[in-house]
Design a protein that fits this description.
alpha/beta, five-stranded mixed beta sheet, 5 strands, globular, protein-disulfide reductase [NAD(P)H] activity, TXNDC17_dom, TXNDC17-like, Thioredoxin-like_sf
């Protein structure tokens, strides 16, 4: 799996373009981490190890999943709280909360908040 972490929407758009040859592009929206690795978003910190394990399992069961990209977008708290931010207002994203994992280009293919602490739901989404 091709993994990239970005910190703004311009970097996200570049990463999506770079991964355009991939069969699937997953977008993981999460709270920005500080120097210690802790996010301002407690739900993001809670979901991170579950998501990571599910991604590892997916890679193992799909021979590395080289044709799949995962772009993690770390959003600063003040930007996330702004109801007019890019991620909330863009017609193809419509972000409501973090963490959110979604398939790029598919608004109905997403999980958010507490659903991202359920490995069965994550694995089911990744297999779509």
């Amino acid at each position: 799996m091709k993994k990239t972490t970005v910190s703004d929407h311009e970097q996200m758009l570049k990463a999506i373009q770079t991964a355009s040859d991939c069969e699937k592009i997953w977008l993981l929206f999460t709270g920005k981490r500080d120097a210690s690795g802790k996010s301002w978003c407690p739900d993001c910190d809670k979901a991170e190890p579950v998501i990571s394990q599910c991604i590892q399992d997916y890679e193992k069961s799909h021979g590395g999943a080289d044709n799949v990209a995962l772009i993690t977008i770390e959003i600063p708290r003040d930007e996330h709280k702004n109801l007019q931010n890019y991620y909330r207002t863009h017609k193809d994203i419509q972000l409501k909360c973090v963490p959110t994992l979604m398939l790029h280009g598919q608004l109905n293919m997403r999980l958010a908040e507490d659903n991202l602490t359920d490995p069965d739901l994550i694995k089911e989404l990744l297999e779509q």
